[in-house]
Amino acid sequence: MSFNSFGQLFRFTTWGESHGPALGVVVDGCPPMLPISTEMIQRDLDRRKPGQSRFTTQRREADQVQILSGTFEDERDGVTKSTGTPISLMIENTDQRSKDYSEIKDKFRPGHADYTYQQKYGIRDYKGSGRASARETAARVAAGAIARQVLAGVTIRASLVQMGPHKIDYDNFDWDQVNENPFFCADPKAAQLWEGYLDGIRKDGNSVGAVIEVVAEGVPPGWGAPIYGKLSADLASAMMSINAVKAVEIGAGFEAASLTGTENADEMRAGNAGPYFTSNKAGGILGGISNGDPVVCRFAVKPTSSILSPRQSVTVDNHDTDVVTKGRHDPCVGIRAVPIGEAMMACVLADHYLRHRGQTGREGGVGF
Amino acid sequence: MSFNSFGQLFRFTTWGESHGPALGVVVDGCPPMLPISTEMIQRDLDRRKPGQSRFTTQRREADQVQILSGTFEDERDGVTKSTGTPISLMIENTDQRSKDYSEIKDKFRPGHADYTYQQKYGIRDYKGSGRASARETAARVAAGAIARQVLAGVTIRASLVQMGPHKIDYDNFDWDQVNENPFFCADPKAAQLWEGYLDGIRKDGNSVGAVIEVVAEGVPPGWGAPIYGKLSADLASAMMSINAVKAVEIGAGFEAASLTGTENADEMRAGNAGPYFTSNKAGGILGGISNGDPVVCRFAVKPTSSILSPRQSVTVDNHDTDVVTKGRHDPCVGIRAVPIGEAMMACVLADHYLRHRGQTGREGGVGF
Amino acid sequence: MSFNSFGQLFRFTTWGESHGPALGVVVDGCPPMLPISTEMIQRDLDRRKPGQSRFTTQRREADQVQILSGTFEDERDGVTKSTGTPISLMIENTDQRSKDYSEIKDKFRPGHADYTYQQKYGIRDYKGSGRASARETAARVAAGAIARQVLAGVTIRASLVQMGPHKIDYDNFDWDQVNENPFFCADPKAAQLWEGYLDGIRKDGNSVGAVIEVVAEGVPPGWGAPIYGKLSADLASAMMSINAVKAVEIGAGFEAASLTGTENADEMRAGNAGPYFTSNKAGGILGGISNGDPVVCRFAVKPTSSILSPRQSVTVDNHDTDVVTKGRHDPCVGIRAVPIGEAMMACVLADHYLRHRGQTGREGGVGF
Amino acid sequence: MSFNSFGQLFRFTTWGESHGPALGVVVDGCPPMLPISTEMIQRDLDRRKPGQSRFTTQRREADQVQILSGTFEDERDGVTKSTGTPISLMIENTDQRSKDYSEIKDKFRPGHADYTYQQKYGIRDYKGSGRASARETAARVAAGAIARQVLAGVTIRASLVQMGPHKIDYDNFDWDQVNENPFFCADPKAAQLWEGYLDGIRKDGNSVGAVIEVVAEGVPPGWGAPIYGKLSADLASAMMSINAVKAVEIGAGFEAASLTGTENADEMRAGNAGPYFTSNKAGGILGGISNGDPVVCRFAVKPTSSILSPRQSVTVDNHDTDVVTKGRHDPCVGIRAVPIGEAMMACVLADHYLRHRGQTGREGGVGF
């Protein structure tokens, strides 16, 4: 069952609330003998961490990861490696200011999961959104760091490609720029324009949505599975499971609806190393299976629901009220979704790699 | 594992190729005591069936379903009902013209899964695309008919809302129009315009993409689950698993990226029967859990890859070649995806209904 | 969810009742490129088939299997092979004599699942026990035949080792004898004695239990998984899922409870091809993982509950009554459980082989 | 996938090695609104804890459990309850004496999983058996304490019923005696005799096996599922997954093989509250589904493999050697398996309760 677990052979389970003592993830099914270190995981966590710029929440969380199980020092080379058993990772919550929750406690915040959790469970951890908090995504990013170790030869990168109505210009696209601006944006000119734009949004006490593009290069043909195990279906599920995500597309995505068959189908040519595609409208996936081209996935993040402008809502005993969400919030949560999207891509691919290897005994396609 | 199965408590497994003797589905976990009949399933199958108009493939398949197991006549009322055991449904393939496959056999058709199946498995059923054929969707539609029986009180309908670049006008939206035109389109004016447009495409030997909107009304609050079992994540996976689908969105979807927080979060008011939302940008899902509003999902179908215009490709032994796909194909496969989208919505909701009932003992939310 | 499915990577789903039109199985996750033929499957089915001797039910079922999907002729060698997609197998029910079910319909037969199915589902297919019929095991045997193809190099055999209170003498054990007597018994002397014994039981209108031993040779070290994926745990589940099975043991089994540590732990010695064990009390499994020795599993089958002697029972409206089960029944269902036990062993091993290969990239252990 | 997870709707995942910083369990799918406290979990953990008598290992572990997530104080009554989200429980390892592992490191201990872990993974945490340590069972016991909360009305108890060759006398059976002796034995006379017997074994540096019987009373008819989801199959898997377990039986178990049909099938009579069974050879399960009688399961634990007597083995580089396991070990690990068996019974029943409720909407059977 997938309530709080994701994946099949490479499978992780996350736990923890935003204002409890800690949160964490258990990664099960990881291949043995992979080098695993806190540094490696911390590197990815630090990219997701709040408080990195004035454009993300000023909540201060160290997000220090601890490895509690599943690794052992290989005496043959002194490197700490996965043992094939569950890797348990824990991140303690440190910034739990004592706070007056009376307002949140008795009201449903519009756009949040307050109302639906209350309805589903009849009880709700109203401190910092409980389990619905975006803090859960730290656990995914940690799992994603393990997944990257599984995926030798695969490079996974992501970029913000749209903030509010402002899209990047793909002519400026440069992966090297992603870490050079506070938006994880591969278009440096767009990033520059967005600074002013987002400052305005932030000062208005408002927020804005975004689109993230994740690209995996080096995926061999053959990963994925037919029908309900399609690589595209699992990517859609993975990205849609991220907080605030409302849309996912692969390759040309929604744009494909507007195209004709002659425009859309990627043509093939014979190359020295086998066939290749002359375009990548498919986003690297045909019939749910990777075709050797970069796997390209985009997803839309809605604007942060916690805003300073008062919004109409109801109390838990069904009276009209207004809600103003004070506190430390991201004017554009989409920014921090960039490393999260990378992590989910890594987890999906690691899982499909192992599933493909299990069924076929091969690492990728058969060649010709 | 989900290769050819979908769902958890309400779980179905499909099998069969387009040119084998039959295809089918096994539905496991269906609640007992639900009236089940071939007529009921056939009704849904007939909507998906090819050859209904000049705008769908002229392949002639009766798509007659047989119930092989899982039902029994209840003597107390003479009604044949589910017994709680696996319901096996089979549809024989009848229109398997003997045909020359030599062309398809030795070439990879662009936009199809020929190349990726060959790479993954080292062997490929090239007759009618084998397992990658859209004929598999008949099995889903049959499963969806069972799922609808599970969902008393829920109404699931879908409409084509975009064909190629042409979108419907939501001001004309009328569910009663959906079955009055060959496009399952709720906007009769758009449907009229599309006739000429698609005739042109068809005569050109070309094809075109589409967008389908699926709406479920009557879903109580509380269905769905946190994190990786989100209703939205499972819908995304469900729709993306349909042949040729490249994008999925919930509620405002990609549009949400362009909105500000004040525009996007649906406000709430106290009603006599409990709180209600004044808008439905969320598409009926908050934090992965249904909020009582209609569940709204859209997905994009790429243009049919089988077209009469020659396309560049390679042979299985990696030589350049051209491919012209003759034969009987849909100029817009999106049309027949309408009942398929409904079926997948039904299956996702039936599964989440049972999962919610299992965990909480309730049919929906707790009220106040 | 495992209601009617078994396995993870190599996963099969069975369907069908004893008196419906057919029963069958869908095998998902099978590796591609394995030779698959009806003859191969039929060979195993014929061993389970009723009516083979006077010691099994005289019900006449041809048990002819049809392959409906998942195979394709490889033109490189003309051999029909698995394609990696679901293999659907169907067996039509042919011996459904029209019969008076009024007695069974209104009474719960002791030892049968009549009462529990009625309680669980509120409706019950009382014709030939419906889904609880041992006819379901034909579907497993068919799946097992596919699993054997996955397991090149592994030999799986089983023998009846106890009938009623009469155990075999392991000194007489000879695998070549198994198909030389009507009991699938490796001890020819025991088999001879059992003939008279079982004739007596049969003529009394009584029945008797049995113990079956299944042995898999050629399993490399390394298959299985820690904790809840133990090879032993999956074997226990597999055998206990067979109709009428009430006990399962691995290696020394219950006998191990009576032993001391010095007697029980298999000692090791250095061999030319690596370490070997000087005994096999462990039944080839240590810590849930295969150790390279034969995997040895035994299970107990209770006596057939359908007997001619009247037994006390109740009617469906809770009145005292007596039940006499007429009809064609096995005096010792344990006999036909022999090929079923082999099939389940094959399915468990095939699944663990693929899972091990998925996680580690190896076919077995690492060597030294 | 079930590597380190167990259950479907009520699903738990354990992690941690014996000599790492901690071990733990994540319980997913727990119903909301159940009272959960550390005291409640600690009570069960303390029964499993080592060092309780001279008959269990003198390793000193406090086994203090911490609840890290998934509970919240209900302000309506001040009780801390499950929220329906993952309950993460952690137990820190405190007794990790610095120790010389050089002997264990280079040798495979007979009867242990050293050899098979090394073969499977190519790397092995040799400190305290790593993941194969029985310390993992603390995590199960913690999960079982949660499961008991799910099972209002069900009483689960266990007793040692055999130590080495010495069986209890069921005429002396008294559940109230179980906690009055160091063996969790319901027969006080047997317990008295076992003291001397086990002292002898212990002083010899030897060990001995045992049989545990677990009984669940108050299970309504209707839990369990057909075929591969049988209650008996899941119990078999659950018990066989416990360290050192080599056999499992339900009700009459292996004894059923020796019985005739007239002896074995439990007869039924009409009672005021519906039908009842006049005996319980079935162990409360018919066709995999509970029949309302006590669910009775027995399992055999092999003797502790760690003994003081030298045993023949091999080194990791395949040379003959002897192994003497020094250190703190249980002369009869079966004793501490008693609370573990109870925990696994609770987890299986909780899972099937929720699965049954999900599929049927009922808590148990339909009545008449």
Please give the structural blueprint.
The structure is a homotetramer of 368-residue chains.
Chain A: E1 5-6, E2 11-16, E3 22-28, H1 38-48, E4 65-67, E5 71-74, E6 79-82, E7 87-92, H2 102-106, H3 114-121, H4 136-150, E8 155-163, E9 166-167, H5 188-203, E10 210-217, H6 231-240, E11 245-250, H7 261-264, E12 268-271, E13 274-277, E14 285-286, E15 289-290, E16 295-301, E17 311-314, E18 320-323, H8 337-360
Antiparallel strand pairs in A: 1-2, 2-3, 3-7, 4-7, 5-6, 8-9, 8-10, 10-16, 11-16, 12-13, 14-15, 17-18
Helix pairs in contact in A: 1-4, 1-8, 4-8, 6-8
Major protein interface: A-B, 122 and 122 residues
Mean pLDDT over the full residue set of chain A: 93
C-alpha Rg of chain A (nearest Å): 21 Å
Structural class of chain A: alpha+beta
Ends of chain A: how far apart?
Answer: 39 Å
- How many separate helices of chain A? 8
Major sheet strand order of chain A: 1-2-3-7-4
What is the chain-wise order of helices and strands of chain A?
EEEHEEEEHHHEEHEHEHEEEEEEEH
Q: Give the overall silhouette of chain A.
A: globular
The residue ranges of chain A in which pLDDT falls below 50 over 5 or more consecutive positions are none
The number of E-state strands of chain A comes to 18
The protein's oligomeric status is: homotetramer
Instruction: Estimate what percentage of residues of chain A fall within beta strands.
Output: 15-25%
Largest beta-sheet details of chain A? 5 strands, antiparallel
Percentage of residues in helical conformation of chain A: 25-40%
